[in-house]
Amino acid sequence: MAIIVHHLENSRSQRILWMLEELGLPYEVKRYARDKKTMLAPPELKAVHPLGKSPILEHDGRIIAETATILEYLVAVSHGRLGPPEDAAGALRWRYFLDYAEGSLMPPLLLSLVIGKMGPFGWPARGFVTRFAMTHVDYVESELSQRPWFAGAEFSAADIIMSFPLEAARQRLRLDGKRPTITDWLDRIHARPAYQAALEKGGPYAYA
Question: What range(s) does the GST C-terminal domain occupy (predicted)?
Fold first, then answer.
């Protein structure tokens, strides 16, 4: 059965399209538009998975949700490509960043987005949330200054999963010129042919 990606516009599922392009695996995209008033996913996604969230991968009768789980599934399908490095330290970093991207880095960026939409009501919390987010940004800047890619010397799925939170951080925290290592990494991933091909398949994407 062909791989189907249930893809929500301007969402984290863009990473799954990119992963598939890097691996050269054939796939079909089913696009979903956000509700123009709430900016939430449409109810049609709940017919695919009870949580109604994207990304969702459909393959061989399986419905697979959560970005890290999908990436690991695709690494297995492609016999280890873009998987962890062979050295123990690199393998641990690879596993760590797959969890860190959504578990630790994304929450303060989401808070930043919500507070930004609250207008004056969000001002009391804005400074705290920004400092909280920048602690993570500084940590990532330090990590990337030690190696060209997140897991080590080679590009991997760890870079793919880190893309969305750092793209969001670049926009929401106005990072350009302030964190040169992150900016350089973002510029390098955006220049990859597979990234560009994924943009064509996925449609408009606000963070590229």
Answer: 87-208
